[in-house]
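Backbone geometry:

***
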Amino acid sequence: MKELYRLKETIVTIKADEQEYIEVAKQSIISSRLLLEQYILKDPYFKITLEPHDCLDNAPEIALRMADASRQVGIGPMSAVAGTISAFAVEAMVEAGASYAMVDNGGDIAYITDRPLLVGIYAGTSPVKDLAFVVQPSDHVKGICTSSGTVGPSISFGMADAAIVFSDNVSLADAAATALGNATEIGSRGVEESFRVLKGVNDIDGAVVIQGENIGMWGNIPEIVRAKVDPDCITKG
């Protein structure tokens, strides 16, 4: 089952075998956003800073995860917001009994799966098209997060058409994808040198950068196969 769900700026595609798990995910998203909004009222700098930020005492878990993940790659905590909301939703689905659950928050995906999945790669106007990752079954929540300087509304200071990071820490995958995208310049050398921002960061499995006709890979990534990627399946506003 699949449902597109929107709450303010959060626009997600939720997938599960049962509608009850989709409802659990939606309630988690409502709760996560409320907790984060209430925290930002107390700590407004958390929302606007582009640098690592220390949370106030008694900050909610969502803010702590975002701050910790972004600190590891040297950027601001809101870089991890989409992936963290996705992660909380999938964790809630798993707690409710789901063995297959996916939340795609604008390209920042948290998932757990008991079957192989194809996850399409979308890189805007890049000629690198119709490719997908073959994601293998996992018994714990994992993340595939994407940042782009040419696709979507998120802030990016780089030229990546797609900067993709894989990690068991979904918040970290999101923040690291942003940092990787920020570091990507034009050309094959720009792609190659972008991966320097990930060196020394623990818990990142691998990463992919697409910039124009150039594609670079770092670490361990899932198998890539040819697949028809339908733009209509992309979660967007």
Notes: The chain has one domain: 2-230. DSSP finds six helices and eleven strands in the chain. Residues 2-230 form a domain with the T-fold fold (CATH 3.10.520.10). The helical segments are 19-42, 45-48, 61-73, 81-95, 170-183, 188-194.
